[in-house]
Description:
By secondary structure, the protein is an alpha/beta fold. The protein has helices spanning 5-10, 27-35, 49-62, 78-88, 101-109, 121-129, 151-161, 175-183, 205-212, 236-245, 251-258, 261-268, 291-311; strands at residues 16-18, 40-43, 67-72, 92-96, 113-118, 135-138, 144-145, 166-169, 188-191, 219-222, 230-233. It starts with a helix and ends with a helix.
Amino acid sequence: MIETRITEMLGIRYPVFQGGMAWIADGRLAAAVSEGGGLGIIAAGNAPGTYVRAEIRAARARTKRPIGVNIMLLSPYADEVARVVAEERVAVVTTGAGNPSRYMKDWLAAGIRVIPVVASVAMAKLMTRLGAAALIAEGGESGGHVGELTTMVLVPQIVDVSDLPVIAAGGIADGRGVAAALMLGAEGVQMGTRFLSACECGIHPAYKEKVVKATDLCTVVTGKRLGHPVRSLRTPFSRAYLEAEYGGMPDAELEAMATGALRLAVQEGDAAHGCFLSGQCAALVRKEQPAAEIVREVMEEAEPLLLRAAKWVK
Length: 314
């Protein structure tokens, strides 16, 4: 059994977080991951507080174990959702796409563990000073909005500048990734793409099929021109977007082209108009299986690898 400060802090069996994927990570998926011994996380995305509250309660109807909520700080509903999570006193709040400092005092007062996603050393230092409980160091291999540094490079740098536990994210989908992350100094991992294949994940079957059948060069990054790079599966939509992005389409039209694209992928499986968010590790996802089985499997794969590495030291 792998025990770290993360498992001790949160009272979870395995140091595995499920990523907060907008339009995807709902109460059902989060509850299944938490029941399986990890930390399930509900994605607030651009949803209002009423939706987030309903999903929190839906998850709690399925599990008594800790759950978290991911808040995208660029959302127009960020203030509203920030109040909801404090009122509901969720175990963990993870944050992305911004600086959560304006909400930290209220969350900490509610007894919430605040665990921001960081993509740079400077942000890690700031979040450490402001009272974060841990840090999620997410590399550019991940799906969705991505930073510049890879997980292999980012994690040890974050570990070096903070005494907080670090959760590695980006490019992790099996026990080998877990073992590598722990050897880089992380004390847990966050996986998003791997949970797209979970039985409890409600994405359209066409989306799930694309993930399971993905190959090594299956993803592409778009949106760099607008300053919001996003990694997704290669589809007719992503090819058309790339052509528009570097073909001179005005910024406003380019922005409009992507509006609603994730929802079309998640709900309708529309490859012509939908954005199928996915990390580079999709090629390691081979089948649909229960979320609890995914959590257990990756940890059971990681343990012998860590033990084998220890035997090499003389």
